């Protein structure tokens, strides 16, 4: 039985990272593709900007909550079955939302879509770490990090063109089509990666104990909180940029997407940097490097805002440096955190990713509270989050490198 399991995983060890990357891409795309459509949706539903920002925030919050559920259930039911169920929910909710006629209806099915997206957000990390351990797993996650930035980079560009030439409803059709394609790909080519020996019995007590053990692990929680505060700065910017660029600086919806493309290239470069040098330096060193970029870039962003720059380019360029640091921190932190979870990688992946999404939701909510048609107050928040990350990284010696373990499926 075990030999069959190892053979199946070995045969699929190249297709699994690709499909896992597409799944993570879909999860990131589901929110960022809506960003250029938010002003149009605000007009269509005759509501306030902060309400439309709440749509994205609600989606993140749902993904975070359901991610915790998927993580524990995946230790019982396995990864593949839950991933397929999540993808089916994405397709159905997106198709229904395409026909939304009221704001309440839209919010309800956006939350259902987020419940499906949680599977794509959490389970790909567990799939990868089921197969690859230690720095090899870090290298694969960093390689995925080269794909994931395409979502916040290309999705707003696509969303802008769809909004301008079709309507915001077409965005949900695109999400449904991508979800359906991934559903059939996972069903055909991805085997179950969870070792049968590592499966747990269905027990609420066991699941609570699993997460409680992670919460009590100071090293694990420190890594998680560093990534969480870094992500809050990212989404403070992403949730306010469409309103500043389109409504205040006069950028069209179709051209808006070029600026997230520039900004998100920072994550691409950060993960390329990590991938290139991961075998030379400890992962803790990369987290220190990432924190420096967060602090410097956030201060530069505040200076550009204070100067009252009327071109979108300097804002996007400064945030590109911030996302360079975030890309390094996210991938290095993910590998370290999930390795610390040992045989409960489903719990570790779910807690890490869900915590980041929950904090991203909090960042969007805070941005909506302080947003006054300029970047000034959001910029102050971004600087604050960058400084918090810096303190957490440099106040004490960073976490020790977890030991690598051999994996028969690698």
Compact overview of the structure:
The chain is an all-alpha fold. Helix content is 80%, strand content 0%.
Kindly describe this structure.
57% of the residues are buried. This protein has one domain: Up-down Bundle (Growth Hormone, Chain: A), CATH 1.20.1250. With 410 residues, the protein is mostly helical. Helix 7 (134-147) runs antiparallel to helix 15 (312-340) and helix 13 (258-277) packs parallel to helix 15. 80% of the residues lie in helices and 0% in strands.
Percent of residues in helices:
over 70%
Major sheet details: none
CATH class: Mainly Alpha
Oligomerization: single chain
Keywords:
single chain, 410 residues, mainly alpha, Growth Hormone, Chain: A, 17 helices, globular
Write the layout of secondary structure elements.
Layout: H1 2-11, H2 15-32, H3 38-44, H4 49-77, H5 79-97, H6 103-131, H7 134-147, H8 150-165, H9 169-189, H10 204-215, H11 218-248, H12 253-256, H13 258-277, H14 283-306, H15 312-340, H16 345-370, H17 376-394
């Amino acid at each position: 039985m075990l030999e069959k399991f190892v053979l199946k995983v070995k045969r699929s060890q190249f297709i699994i990272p690709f499909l896992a990357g597409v799944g993570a891409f879909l999860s990131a795309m589901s929110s960022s593709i809506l960003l250029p459509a938010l002003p149009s949706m605000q007009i269509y539903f005759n509501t306030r900007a902060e309400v439309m920002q709440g749509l994205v925030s609600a989606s993140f919050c749902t993904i975070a909550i359901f991610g915790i559920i998927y993580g524990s259930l995946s230790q019982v039911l396995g990864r593949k079955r839950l991933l397929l169920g999540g993808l089916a929910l994405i397709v159905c909710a997106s198709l229904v939302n395409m026909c939304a006629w009221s704001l309440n209806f839209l919010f309800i099915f956006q939350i259902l879509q987020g419940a499906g997206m949680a599977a794509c957000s959490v389970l790909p990390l567990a799939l990868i770490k089921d197969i690859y351990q230690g720095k090899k797993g870090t290298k694969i996650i960093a390689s995925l990090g080269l794909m994931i930035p395409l979502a916040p980079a290309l999705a707003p560009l696509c969303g802008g063109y769809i909004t301008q030439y079709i309507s915001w409803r077409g965005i949900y059709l695109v999400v449904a089509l991508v979800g359906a394609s991934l559903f059939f790909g996972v069903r055909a080519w991805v085997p179950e990666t969870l070792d049968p020996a590592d499966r747990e019995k269905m027990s609420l007590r066991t699941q609570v104990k699993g997460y409680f053990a992670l919460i009590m692990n100071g090293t694990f929680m420190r890594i998680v909180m560093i990534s969480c505060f870094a992500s809050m700065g990212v989404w403070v910017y992403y949730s306010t940029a469409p309103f500043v660029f389109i409504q205040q600086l006069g950028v069209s919806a179709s051209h808006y997407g070029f600026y997230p493309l520039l900004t998100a290239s920072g994550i691409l470069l950060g993960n390329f940097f990590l991938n290139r040098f991961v075998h030379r330096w400890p992962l803790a060193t990369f987290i220190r490097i990432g924190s420096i970029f967060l602090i410097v870039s956030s201060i530069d962003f505040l200076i550009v805002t204070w100067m009252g720059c009327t071109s979108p380019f300097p804002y996007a360029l400064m945030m590109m440096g911030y996302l360079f640091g975030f890309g390094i921190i996210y991938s290095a932190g993910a590998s370290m955190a999930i390795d610390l979870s040992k045989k409960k990688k489903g719990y570790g992946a779910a807690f890490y990713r869900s915590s980041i999404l929950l904090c991203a939701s909090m960042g969007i909510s805070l941005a909506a509270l302080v947003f006054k048609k300029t970047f000034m107050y959001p910029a102050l928040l971004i600087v604050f989050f960058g400084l918090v990350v810096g303190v957490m990284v440099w106040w004490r010696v960073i976490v020790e490198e977890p030991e690598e373990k051999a994996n028969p499926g690698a």
